Amino acid sequence: xxxxxxxxxxxxxxxxxxxxxxxxxxxxxxxxxxxxxxxxxxxxxxxxxxxxxxxxxxxxxxxxxxxxxxxxxxxxxxxxxxxxxxxxxxxxxxxxxxxxxxxxxxxxxxxxxxxxxxxxxxxxxxxxxxxxxxxxxxxxxxxxxxxxxxxxxxxxxxxxxxxxxxxxxxxxxxxxxxxxxxxxxxxxxxxxxxxxxxxxxxxxxxxxxxx
Length: 211
Prior knowledge:
Helix content is 0%, strand content 44%. The protein has strands spanning 4-10, 19-25, 40-45, 48-51, 58-62, 65-68, 79-80, 88-89, 91-94, 98-104, 111-117, 126-133, 139-147, 153-159, 162-169, 180-181, 183-186. The protein has a 6-stranded antiparallel sheet with strand order 1-13-12-15-10-5, with no helix packed on it. The protein has a 6-stranded antiparallel sheet with strand order 2-14-11-17-3-4, with no helix packed on it. A hairpin with a 5-residue loop joins strand 12 (126-133) and strand 13 (139-147).
């Protein structure tokens, strides 16, 4: 079973320069290190977001709670942890009706980026992913509706400047369906560098803590 794009909308009034929707990837799943994150990465743990040293800007999350699924850490959807070995992290940020990431990247420098979504509750969640241009007063640039199946899915964009990525739940009446994301990655092939060793302490979005 694979992802299903239900709808894709482009907004004629939006400038084409701040964003390009690149598609989705349901093949890579949790094996992000060979494919994404050369410029930086943010993984979501039970204590909150952990950001790599090399992240080329800032990232903030609004309206989130955080959960970890330790029993699923060997699941191929779980994100690889930095460093040697095959350790994985099955965790995510969740919201009730919507969940927002506010990303600030250098202006006028296009970065390939990916937001990683996993249906940890296995309810075939239907989500809408919107991107807003905070540099232009919050104008909506892009909207994709995605049905998650049994595979982790990256929604891929080329972004720069200040953007808000909002994930919305399209089937609120379905038990277990919630807006969610497990990771955010900047850059193409390569590895983001983390430092530190403590997964058990609160991070609050500080850099490091996953080696």
